[in-house]
Design goal:
The protein is α/β, with parallel strands linked by helices and 428 residues long. It contains 17 helices and 6 strands. The chain folds into 2 domains: 120 residues, D-Maltodextrin-Binding Protein, domain 2 (3-Layer(aba) Sandwich); 238 residues, no CATH class. Helix 3 links the parallel strand 1 and strand 2.
């Protein structure tokens, strides 16, 4: 055990001192938080300012209602962008010269845009928008929505209906969601609950891939530098493999621990700051993460890490270079990727037969069983059965990969074929 501890310490310190570990641990989460929160803050704090828009109304019916509606919207929401419209009176014979004059005003900046309402707008549901920047989708959609509102109002008035009454009658009805568990029911947002579950599952997904690759790369580096031959003069092959896997696993737990602590700070103090910029957040029912979800995250991360790391270690012992590593890692990575893709099918019915069967498959369990736990309470016997199946599979994989590792770590040159691997497992 003392020899394994020395290898664990060597692998752990070698990784945590690297620049990549520091960047991945501190800068990447910071970048994700910035990209996640700043757009929402800017959308609520910043405005487009005042927009001057010319209108050519061939219907002779839309300009005044639109002007009135824009004034109402500005009075109700003074923080929104101000749209000031001015009517241009012309006829179809002078249309081309009028367009050229308005184009010149748009290019000079005296106009932000101009609109043309054709006579058949009520039948064809289209109008023309001319602007220097037509990629401002928010501006385009806002104008389209307000023109649509005015056109719909005129249509309703023509058949004798009150537009405000119709709008109230057609207002959408949305559910107020409550999550039910053994402690009762608690109001939570389904979108936010899914978001938190998705983030935690995605963390396991990335960790299984990244740290599995770290194990494979570490084995290949030791093999190419002949460090493995030196180490094997003092320790047994299975001790070297166990020390390498445990050392890299400790690195992963350190990184996830820092991410978890950061997430805790953001969900408490960060939420207070966000509410100052986005008042609507105050009314949102934020979910609470139960202790069982946290325990499940740790347990299934460790299960997945040790299960896949043994495979990556065996694959690394079969390779001789970084280029070979790219091809060798796909057998293990394909299971992780497929499990992540199946997540979206499991979400629809977490208690269905397919979801239960897939989550009990050991190579899918770290992602799919934890997903089911994070979404709602899973029967204890299913969790226990899943852990037992994972442990049995892990024991079998340790036995198989240990035999491959024992021979492969000292083999150089040609990559072994499948019959040769079977011989290594049978006779080593």
């Amino acid at each position: 055990m003392k020899k394994i501890w020395v290898i664990i310490k060597r692998e752990y310190l070698a990784l945590v001192k690297t620049r990549g570990f520091l960047i991945g641990t501190f800068l990447v989460p910071l970048l994700i938080l910035i990209l996640a929160f700043l757009p929402a803050v800017f959308m609520n704090v910043g405005t487009e300012g005042e927009k001057t828009i010319a209108v050519i109304d061939f219907t002779r019916r839309l300009y005044m209602p639109l002007q009135h509606y824009l004034a109402e919207m500005q009075a109700e929401n003074p923080d929104q962008s101000v749209y000031r419209i001015q009517e241009i009176l012309t006829d179809s014979s002078a249309m081309e010269s009028q367009k050229a004059a308005l184009n010149a005003q748009v290019l000079s900046g005296s106009l932000d845009a101009f609109l043309i309402f054709p006579e058949d707008i009520f039948e064809n549901n289209q109008f023309e928008l001319y602007a220097k920047n037509i990629s401002n989708f928010q501006f385009n959609e806002t104008l389209a929505g307000r023109v649509t509102r005015v056109v719909s109002g005129l249509r309703l008035r023509e058949i004798g209906l009150d537009p405000e009454l119709v709008q109230k009658m057609n207002r959408s009805v949305r559910p107020k969601t409550y999550k039910v568990d053994r402690r009762g029911a608690k109001e939570e947002s389904g979108e936010i609950t899914f978001g938190i579950s998705y983030i935690m599952v995605f963390m396991i997904y990335l960790a299984l891939i990244f740290y599995g690759v770290f194990v494979m790369r570490g084995v290949i580096e030791d093999k190419n530098s002949r460090m493995a031959e030196i180490l094997l003069s003092s320790v047994r092959p299975h001790q070297l493999m166990a020390g390498k896997i445990l050392g890299i696993g400790a690195t992963g737990m350190t990184q996830l621990g820092i991410w978890g602590f950061t997430l805790l700070l953001v969900s408490t103090y960060g939420l207070i700051m966000i509410r100052q910029f986005v008042p609507a957040v105050e009314k949102m029912p934020f979910p609470t993460i139960s202790i069982w979800v946290i325990v499940g995250f740790i347990v299934f991360f460790l299960m997945g890490f040790f299960l896949y790391s043994t495979i990556y270690a065996a694959l690394g012992s079969m390779g001789n270079s970084e280029s070979e590593m790219q091809n060798l890692q796909w057998p293990a990575m394909s299971f992780i990727v497929v499990a992540f893709m199946l997540m979206f099918a499991v979400i629809k019915n977490p208690d269905g037969p397919m979801a239960v069967a897939l989550s009990l498959f050991p190579f899918f369990s770290p992602i799919l069983m934890f997903l089911r736990i994070s979404l709602h309470a899973v029967p204890f016997y299913q969790v226990l059965l899943c852990i037992v199946l994972c442990l049995v599979t892990l024991a079998g994989m340790v036995w198989i990969t240990g035999r491959i590792y024992r021979v492969g770590i000292l083999m150089y040159g040609k990559r072994p074929s499948l019959p040769e691997l079977m011989k290594w497992i049978r006779y080593s």
